[in-house]
């Protein structure tokens, strides 16, 4: 006899079915949006009087503090939203059932529940959202929070749920029992996906999109590298030491953030990948493979450099108008082979590029100030960037620190 067959009543069989479905979804790694959408549709299929369902949670991401999914029966569809950092301070959250539940959980209640009748003599519409959905026809509302880990829901991650019905009389006792019995398994399935997404997002933010994907996929052994041909981008703020000495700490961070954001946007828009920020420096690559058109990739790098320098000039104008510190950036482009992968100690690794080409592009960038140029390129890059030849001005041969022979250096004209 199967587990579900051991239950004599329909509610018990439904609870088992929902739990098995949720756990299978978690094992498959189903996305949170897909899980909650399917959950709401399954509720309707078994006769649950769902009119509106909502799930939301916190996440760990540099750009977003959380996510939300709203399912509405009239559309049989789900809407997605993301919350910016600081959204917890908005009045619509501070005066919400979820904020109330978080405070309740801080008092020691694990997975607190809230229920409000929205129509009839016992109606209690003590939150703005309840007044809103009651005006649309909702008769009953339940909400709860499942936190991940041992902390309270005001920290870390978890899932907040709310469900509303428009049925006369509201939810039945069995309806509420069904939710109480299946939401733990659904939350566990969502936790599986949220953990995966948090790891992927943080790796991409700290290592770069491609490096983050590789590490998340298992490229974690020290010494695991591959040979990669790429256009190398190395940028540095000119005179940063003097700027740092004369600029208060938080203002200096603001300058770095604005500068790096401007350059990163240009690199990203042209198919490049930022590998790391090193103090006031930035290393990026435009990878090449056997199918790549080298001239086209070099053209993309030139486009990124041009966009970055123009955007930095506009940024400096805005910052100067606001009486903020400005920064001049020097940039070098080089083409060569590098080793791409894990380097470091057994318990502290860096996923990066290494090799003579990396050293050379840094040395080329160091010539920008003495040569009074903003963007310099190597002869190797110039030979491949055939579509941009008219914008490259030869500056002769120059010695690069630590490099045996002088190298031909060219300037990229930005006008």
Question: Can you put this structure into words, describing what you see?
Answer:
Helix 1 runs parallel beside helix 6 (173-207) and helix 2 runs antiparallel to helix 6 (173-207). The protein folds into two domains: 4-206, GAF domain (Beta-Lactamase, 2-Layer Sandwich), CATH 3.30.450.40; 222-412, Nucleotide cyclase, GGDEF domain (Alpha-Beta Plaits, 2-Layer Sandwich), CATH 3.30.70.1230. It is elongated, with a radius of gyration of 28 Å. It is 41% helix and 27% strand. It has twelve helices and 14 strands. The N and C termini lie far apart (79 Å). It has helices at residues 10-28, 32-45, 91-94, 97-106, 128-135, 173-207, 209-216, 240-246, 249-269, 294-321, 356-365, 379-384; strands spanning 52-58, 64-72, 77-84, 113-117, 140-147, 158-165, 225-237, 273-278, 281-288, 329-345, 348-354, 375-378, 392-398, 407-412. The protein is an alpha+beta fold and 415 residues long. The strands form two sheets. Strands 7, 8, 9, 10, 11, 12, 13 and 14 form an eight-stranded mixed beta sheet that branches.
């Amino acid at each position: 006899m199967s587990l579900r067959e051991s239950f004599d009543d329909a509610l018990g069989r439904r609870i088992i079915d929902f739990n098995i479905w949720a756990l299978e979804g978690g094992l498959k790694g189903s996305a949170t949006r897909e899980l909650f959408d399917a959950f709401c549709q399954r509720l309707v299929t078994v006769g649950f009087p769902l009119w509106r369902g909502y799930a939301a949670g916190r996440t760990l991401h540099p750009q977003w503090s959380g996510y939300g999914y709203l399912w509405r029966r009239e559309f049989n569809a789900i809407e997605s939203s993301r919350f910016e950092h600081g959204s917890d301070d908005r009045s619509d959250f501070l005066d919400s059932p979820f904020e109330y539940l978080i405070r309740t959980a801080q008092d020691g209640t694990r997975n607190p529940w809230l229920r409000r009748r929205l129509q009839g003599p016992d109606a209690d519409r003590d939150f703005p959202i309840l007044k809103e959905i009651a005006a649309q026809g909702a008769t009953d509302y339940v909400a709860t929070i499942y936190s991940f880990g041992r902390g309270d829901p005001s920290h870390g991650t978890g899932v907040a749920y709310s469900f509303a019905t428009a049925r006369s009389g509201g939810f039945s006792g069995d309806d509420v029992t069904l939710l109480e019995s299946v939401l733990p398994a659904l939350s566990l399935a969502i936790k599986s996906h949220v953990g995966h997404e948090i790891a992927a997002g943080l790796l991409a933010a700290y290592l770069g999109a491609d490096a983050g994907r590789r590490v998340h996929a298992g490229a974690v052994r020290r010494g695991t590298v591959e040979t990669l041909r790429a256009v190398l981008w190395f940028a540095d703020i000119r005179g940063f030491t003097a700027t740092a000495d004369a600029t208060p700490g938080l203002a200096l961070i603001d300058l770095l953030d604005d500068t790096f954001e401007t350059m990163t946007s240009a690199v990203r828009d042209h198919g490049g990948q930022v590998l790391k920020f090193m103090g006031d420096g930035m290393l990026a690559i435009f990878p090449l493979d056997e199918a790549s058109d080298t001239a086209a990739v070099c053209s993309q790098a030139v486009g990124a450099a041009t966009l970055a320098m123009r955007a930095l000039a506009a940024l400096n104008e805005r910052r100067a108008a606001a009486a903020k510190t400005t920064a001049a950036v020097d940039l070098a482009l080089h083409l060569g082979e590098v080793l791409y992968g894990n380097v470091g100690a057994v318990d502290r690794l860096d996923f990066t590029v290494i090799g003579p080409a990396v050293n050379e592009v840094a040395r080329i960038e160091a010539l920008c100030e003495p040569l009074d140029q903003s963007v310099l390129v190597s002869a190797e890059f110039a030979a491949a960037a055939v579509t941009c030849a008219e914008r490259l001005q030869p500056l002769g041969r120059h010695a690069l620190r630590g490099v045996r022979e002088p190298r031909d250096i060219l300037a990229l004209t930005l006008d």
